[in-house]
Amino acid sequence: MRSDAVANREALLAAARVELNLDPDASLEAIAARAGLSRRSVYGHFATRDELLRELITLGATRVAASVATVDHDDPLVRLALIASRLWHEVEDIRVMAVFAVRGPLKGHTAEALAPLRLRVVDSIAEGVAAGSVRRDIPVARLARLVEDAALSALAEASSDAMPGSAAHRLVILLVLSTAGLSAEQAAALIDTHPELDS
C-alpha cells in the first residue's frame, strides 16, 4: 500500500479503538468521522464493519498475548496474578471494547487470537493444582475458563462503574485469585506482599 493508504488504515483502526470503546455499536460513519475520513474511504480498507472489527480484535489480542508471554514466576498463583495485572494494563484504556471482543458476536475470532494467553492460564492452574496451592475441586480446563470469566467480570464492572484504575486493577487480581481458590484475606495478602503486582 502507498504511505497515505497505510496512514489512513492506521487512522481508521485507531479511531475504531476509541469509538468502539465509547460505544460498541458505533457505526462506520462514526469511526470514519473520528479518523477524519469519509465513509467511502473506509470501504477502501474494510469491506464491512465486521471486517474492521476482526482486524482490530486480532491486533489487540495479539498484543495482549505477546505481553503476557513474558510473564513468569516460580509460584503459579503469583504468575496468575501477574497475568491478570498485565492483562489489566493492556486493556485499561479500552475496557468496554475488551469485554465486547471476548463476549460479543466475534468472540470465536477473539478466542483464536487469545489462544496463547489461555494456554498460559491453563498451564499455571495445572501447576498450582499439582503444587496444592490452587483448588482441586474443579477440573483445570473449567477452572481456567472461570478465572477468565472472573477477570472479564471485573473489567465489565470497572467499565460500568467508571472505577478508578488502581481499584479496578486490584479487583481484577483479587477475583482471579479468589476464583483460583484463595480466600479474600489470602488474595489480598498475596497482592500486598508482591510489589511487582503494582506495576
- How large is the count of helical segments? 11
Most strands sheet: none
State the CATH superfamily name of the largest domain.
Tetracycline Repressor, domain 2
Shape category: elongated
Mind telling me the C-alpha Rg?
18 Å
Q: What does the oligomeric state look like here?
A: single chain
Strand tally is 0
Name of the CATH class of the largest domain: Mainly Alpha
Our measurement of the CA-to-CA distance between the termini, rounded to an integer number of angstroms, reads 38 Å
Strand content: under 5%
Return the CATH architecture of the largest domain.
Answer: Orthogonal Bundle
- Integer count of domains: 2
Q: Give the integer mean of the pLDDT values.
A: 88
CATH-derived topology of the largest domain = Tetracycline Repressor, domain 2
Q: Could you say which structural class the secondary elements and strand pairing correspond to?
A: mainly alpha
